[in-house]
Amino acid sequence: MPVEEPLATLSSIPDSSADQAPPLIADEFTLDLPRIPSLELPLNVSTKHSSIQKAIKMCGGIEKVKEAFKEHGPIESQHGLQLYLNDDTDSDGSKRYFNEHPVIGKRVPFRDESVILKVTMPKGTLSKNNNSVKDSIKSLKDSNKLRVTPVSIVDNTIKFREMSDFQIKLDNVPSAREFKSSFGSLEWNNFKSFVNSVPDNDSQPQENIGNLILDRSVKIPSTDFQLPPPPKLSMVGFPLLYKYKANPFAKKKKNGVTEVKGTYIKNYQLFVHDLSDKTVIPSQAHEQVLYDFEVAKKTKVYPGTKSDSEFYESLEECLKILRELFARRPIWVKRHLDGIVPKKIHHTMKIALALISYRFTMGPWRNTYIKFGIDPRSSVEYAQYQTEYFKIERKLLSSPIVKKNVPKPPPLVFESDTPGGIDSRFKFDGKRIPWYLMLQIDLLIGEPNIAEVFHNVEYLDKANELTGWFKELDLVKIRRIVKYELGCMVQGNYEYNKYKLKYFKTILFVKESMVPENKNSEEGMGVNANKDADGDINMDAGSQMSSNAIEEDKGIAAGDDFDDNGAITEEPDDAALENEEMDTDQNLKVPASIDDDVDDVDADEEEQESFDVKTASFQDIINKIAKLDPKTAETMKSELKGFVDEVDLIPPERTGTNANEHTFCSLLMLKSIFAKRFASTGSYPGSTRITLPRRPAKKIQLGKSRPAIYHQFNVKMELSDGSVVIRRSQYPKGEIRLIQDQRNNPLWNPSRDDLVVVDANSGGSLDRFNKRYSSLFSVDSTTPNSSSETVELSEENKKKTQIKKEEKEDVSEKAFGMDDYLSLLDDSEQQIKSGKLASKKRDKK
User: Fold this and answer.
1) Per residue in 278-309, is it b (16+ CB within 10 Å) or e — as a string?
2) Is residue 187 part of a domain?
3) Contact 381/330 with Cβ under 8 angstroms?
4) Which residues of the chain have pLDDT under 70?
């Protein structure tokens, strides 16, 4: 099957070397075109007028369609457009189908603006290409005879995405026909005959109603109960949503055929889904994986693998390492094991874990691998292996500074910095953000305040499903400390408020808060604007603790809502577990040969994009210099200690040492290097200290254009209909909201009659002046009063339909103008002579 070539291709941009200028970005143009709505029907509508008219009739008429386009608000509150597929009636006027109900169409919430193009080509081109528009355009690609003109933009679309339910006809059911002919006709004689046909006393109520003589011409069998059908057979409007995932090992060829290559085996990992007392903890692996392992011992080849892959030998080596690790620590997290198991045998780890451990899917030991025969509910010594999951709030992650501070997760296979132990970057010590935010309790006690709380813990007599062996209050203390310090660290603050930490350690109730929640932070896009030096919380908002703030609560999640500082506590979501652990798949791929070909990302390009001289640390700048000049970077690293304030950059006196002078010169050199290198770079988006770089003073020669203006800021423009577009701007503002644009202008939306021209300056100083002093002038001002006009316009909109009808009737009256008055004058009428103007005569001397 030949592969079709695209009609248009983008030319590749040549690689620009260091001495060449970067490639230019394509220009953006605004299409000042009218906006029109569109209606996508699940019908085969032709271009004939009768077909279009029938489709509109099935939707209830043109007025119903207009009303559907005018609806605003969320989709749930919209009535939508009703499409009747079988809105047929019988000769008596009743509906033919018993349960006819329409398919509801709703407006698209995220408007996908489509451009309608007018394509003009020479006459006869379509006939030469078998009426194929695609082939016709392709044949004219190299000529200038093809003209493409944008006509309009579709910005309002109604789509029908619901399922069309089953429709039931009751023509063959006698009882339904009796009911339809009597109650459906609304005639008294039919009512009377139907009631008289029903006996007063039913001697056999258990028998089928078909035994009653309702229609003497048809005899209903006793197996048909003639029950009324349900009004709607499908209880959901949309098809069931399921989490579909394609086979990750399947590859699609160029001809479209999907093929799965390689060998795959199942790990048969055991899961425990209940924490009740009746739950039995497994003591050995699944029988199938034990059988496969016994076969592998005899044949030296694991079932489902090949002998040249040496899967069994790698599995034995991996089992030896894991048995030693589980002997020291009975409960593990898989991400911790990824850095200990060597890379060459890492592909056998899931099978090895299935042979020596099981997993909990709920409770305080969720998503951990527990050694067979170990029940963490049996002793308090397993309390330190409980897991707590933390998460950085999305509003903080929108800030570039926070994104830079949050470390990137490790790759799937890495090497731990602690030989034979958990990598130190997984531990929480209050000095750096851990790699993985699903933390076990023993990985938190490296922080002194948490260690103090942990050593004073009083365990429960029996472990429960929510808090394990800990009391609710002790877990709340630990969570508060972690959330406070984690929220400070992601914002670059490593100096904690000791009074807050002391308060968190001495909390008396499960739910209480020392600092009122700052509601202004929810409105910000990035870091809280009212932050202080101790953790981005407004300390002046209230110094006294409210009496209502101290109260008991049975739930932990409700108590964690206060003072989160940008970090929250919750159960690990499915996306985080699948992306970071990726151990939910039972199928395991066995590679034919082990190699080190891993797709690595170009770290240089990523660092260059994320590097900002105004937000970079001293070590980041040194590392940047080291890539260009390692010798200079090494000298600066050994002689310089860090950044110095500009006020402290005073040249040392000549009595000082040479080392001080050399250090000062190095600082000036470092400052000058980056001032020149990054002179044209702006700060991070959303920063309050953005300044435009100075352009060199240059005289504009006669006949030359002015210098180019810097458009270096990405501004989110919110249009009047709620849609948001990103444009380049010279003004350093992150968001701009427009109240008057093409989306709500009647000139560009002729199909919408609910739009009015609103004065954008209403409510300003000019409007207030007109309100106050318009009565002082004898001549009426032509400037409309915005407030009163808005009310009048709203009233006019309500009566617009009625006005249109009256305009048709009053056409003849309005056409009676000045010319008609002049025609009434008689031709014989003489004009009355009036007085003459006195002329100014000069006296004779």
Assistant:
1) eeebeeebbeebeebbeebeeeebbeebeeeb
2) no
3) no
4) 1-24, 91-94, 98-99, 110-112, 199, 201-226, 235, 237-244, 248-249, 260-263, 511-615, 641, 643-711, 756-764, 774-845
Whether 61 is in a domain gets the answer: yes
Domain-embedded: residue 727: yes
Number of neighbours of residue 547 by Cβ within 10 angstroms: 7
Looking at the structure, do residues 267 and 402 belong to the same domain, yes or no? yes
Q: Give me the pLDDT at residue 231, please.
A: 73
- Scored b (16 or more CB within 10 A) or e, 338-372 reads bbbbeeebbbbbbbbbbbbbbbbeebbbbbbbbbb
The model scores a pTM over 0.85: no
Check whether residue 136 and residue 95 sit in a common domain: yes
User: Pick from 629, 654, 677: which residue ends a domain?
Assistant: 677
Q: Say how many domains are in the chain.
A: 4
Residues in the chain: 845
593 and 551 Cβ atoms separated by less than 8 Å: no
Q: Which residue is associated with the tokens 């695209």?
A: 6
Q: In this structure, are 146 and 285 located in the same domain?
A: no
Is the domain of 648 the same as that of 513? no
Q: Using one digit for the tens of pLDDT, what is the confidence trace for 90-135? A: 766 667 776 678 888 888 876 667 888 999 999 888 888 888 888 8
d(CA 333, CA 394): 25
In a domain, 358, yes or no: yes
Residues 752, 659, single domain; the answer is no
- What is the DSSP-derived secondary structure letter of residue 9? -
Q: Range of 125's domain? A: 35-159
Tokens of 362: 């709920």
CA dist list (Å): 547 to 476, 556, 758, 766: 20, 20, 50, 50
Placement of tokens 């996508």 in the chain: 40
Percent of the chain residues past pLDDT 70, beyond the cut? 60
Tell me, yes or no, whether 369 and 509 share the same domain: yes
DSSP β-bridge partners for residue 717 = 725, 736
- Tell whether 520 and 371 lie within a shared domain: yes
Inter-residue contact 262 to 591 (CB < 8 Å): yes
